[in-house]
Amino acid sequence: MNDHSSRTSEDLSGPMKIRKMTLADLAQVVAIDQVSFSLPWPERSFHFELTENEASRCWVVESEGRVVAMLVGWFVIDDIHIATFATHPDFRRQGIGEKLLSHVLRTARGEGALTSFLEVREGNLAAQEMYRKFGYVVSGRREHYYNDNGEAAILMTLGSLADFDASIETKLPSETP
């Protein structure tokens, strides 16, 4: 399993904590992915990310033994690319995704990441709004990116992780450093 950072977990307020994803989490992670996306990743992709992809950074949020959110990012040179990221529908709109993304960006910055990049469906306005809170800006567009319906992907970039704490501090008051 990849072990790229000494920061392995973070307690959230209440019974939730952020920790590195393990193989034991795969069934729950795949279930979240399937309920969240029309083009979910197969289990073998998550397995590959955990066991073979040195660039991969895989995280979950756990609540009372249940995985409620997950994120897979790829650390490439000095960039953390958010590859897939979802919160179980029963736990959305509670700030869990924001705390997970914040944790991942801070951890990546500690490893030397300078920027972050992601693709999001054009119609996923809630996700785009959350990313904007972090300082992501639209940096491009990929037409017909998603095979299921031909929807475009909006490319979003967070240009400087060096300024991340200062910019997010006022936007996420529940976040603790």
How does this model look, in words?
It is a single chain. The protein has 177 residues and is of the alpha+beta class. It has one domain (9-169): Aminopeptidase, CATH 3.40.630. It has five helices and eight strands. It has helices at 26-36, 43-51, 96-111, 125-133, 164-169, and strands at residues 9-11, 16-20, 56-63, 66-76, 79-87, 115-121, 137-142, 153-158. The chain has an eight-stranded mixed β-sheet, with helices on both faces. The model is unreliable at 1-13 and 169-177 (pLDDT under 50).
CA radius of gyration is 15 Å
CATH class: Alpha Beta
Distance between the termini: 27 Å
Mean pLDDT across all amino acids: 85
Q: What's the CATH topology label?
A: Aminopeptidase
Order of helices and strands: EEHHEEEHEHEEH
Query: How many domains in all?
Result: 1
Throw out a few tags for this protein.
eight-stranded mixed sheet, Aminopeptidase, disordered N terminus, single chain, 177 residues, alpha+beta, disordered C terminus
Give a quick precis of the structure.
The chain is of the alpha+beta class. It contains 5 helices and 8 strands. The chain is 29% helix and 31% strand.
Helices, strands, pairings?
Elements: E1 9-11, E2 16-20, H1 26-36, H2 43-51, E3 56-63, E4 66-76, E5 79-87, H3 96-111, E6 115-121, H4 125-133, E7 137-142, E8 153-158, H5 164-169
Parallel strand pairs: 5-6
Antiparallel strand pairs: 1-2, 2-3, 3-4, 4-5, 6-8, 7-8
